[in-house]
């Protein structure tokens, strides 16, 4: 009897259709942020911003990501229905 590795039976390959849908969704999100980033940056500098995917409506903003997620939860907004982006106004210098 041949023994198969556990991960081999659990691995799935996404379908071409699901890859196309994911790519289209990513392009839509990038286009949204490209079109609105400048205006949002003026209103919400150095904050995480959550907008409804379908409408672009701003639902929450906070400099702390965990607080933003808590706010979404309090509002009853499913995080799967929003786009979140950090709007960086102040440069951050990192020493690596």
Side by side, the strands of the main sheet go 2-1-3
Structural class by sheet pairing and helices: alpha+beta
Shape: extended
Element-by-element helix/strand order: HHEEHE
The pLDDT mean sits at 91
Q: How far from one another are the termini?
A: 51 Å
Query: Number of DSSP strands?
Result: 3
Q: How would you characterize the largest beta sheet?
A: 3 strands, antiparallel
Helicity level, as a percent range? 40-55%
Task: Tell me the number of structural domains.
Answer: 1
Uncertain runs: none
Rg over alpha carbons = 19 Å
Strand content: 15-25%
Total of helices: 3
Defining key terms:
96 residues; alpha+beta; three-stranded antiparallel β-sheet; 3 helices; 3 strands; 46% helix
Structure description:
- This protein has 96 residues and is α+β, with helices and mostly antiparallel strands.
- The protein has one domain.
- The protein has three helices and three strands.
In short:
With 96 residues, the protein is α+β, with helices and mostly antiparallel strands. 46% of the residues lie in helices and 18% in strands.
